Amino acid sequence: MLIRTDPFREFDRLAQQFFGSQSPGTWSRPTPMPMDAYRDGDQYVAVFDLPGISPDAIELDVERNVLTVKAERRPVELAEGAEMQVSERPLGVFSRQLFLGETLDADRIEASYDGGVLTLTIPIAEQAKPRKIAVTASGGDRKQIDA
User: Fold this and answer.
1) pLDDT, tens only, 110-139
2) Which of 32, 35, 80, 113 stands the most exposed, by the fewest C-beta atoms within 10 Å?
3) What pLDDT band is residue 145 in, cutting at 50, 70 and 90?
4) CB 107 within 8 A of CB 127
5) Which residues pair with 49 in a beta bridge?
6) pLDDT score at 91
7) Alpha-carbon gap, residue 34 to 13, rounded angstroms
8) What is the pLDDT of residues 44-55, one digit of tens each?
């Protein structure tokens, strides 16, 4: 499994901290979400931190071998007469892309969301798993060989 890298991500993060978030309608790069990924037996697991995001604001799309995770953090709706005093949490659309290798089964990806954490389970395709091949000797004896 290959992970898309963005060499400008750190520059964007520093600029956003220094200059503050951009006003609506101005161009900005999608903010990537923190992720861990690991292999567990016959599957890969990718875990994304998405605190404060409603499950209905998360989109997962697979096109060819690219898995795109998009999430949107919307502004908090204030009660009538309330005034925002501090607004530091980033709002807007967050996006991350994973390039899936040919050995992964994109049709069987599973997703769960609990406590602000999105977990994706991506199984290894059956044809990519190791298998045994029977070899028949000319005398009729069979022997298993690991492929």
Assistant:
1) 999 999 999 999 998 877 677 788 888 876
2) 80
3) low
4) no
5) 117
6) 84
7) 12
8) 999 999 988 989
**Residue 122 and residue 1 in contact, taking contact as beta carbons nearer than 8 Å:** yes
Q: Can you read off the two tokens belonging to residue 133? A: 């091949």
Contacts of residue 46, defined as CB under 8 A and 6 or more positions apart, other chains included, come to 35, 36, 37, 98, 119, 120, 122
Three-class secondary structure assignment of 4-32:
CCCCCHHHHHHHHHHHCCCCCCCCCCCEC
**How far apart are the C-alpha atoms of 116 and 56, rounded to whole Å?**
12
Q: What are phi and psi of 10, to 5 degrees?
A: -65, -40
- Third-level CATH fold of 2-8+31-74+92-146: Immunoglobulin-like (2.60.40)
Domain boundaries in the chain? Answer: 2-8+31-74+92-146
Which residues are bridge partners to 89 per DSSP? none
How far is CA 91 from each of CA 19, 52, 76, 122, rounded to the nearest angstrom?
A: 15, 10, 10, 28
CA–CA separation, 67 and 96 (whole Å): 8
The first and second tokens of residue 83, run together, are 């005034």
Task: Map residue 123 onto helix, strand or coil.
Answer: strand
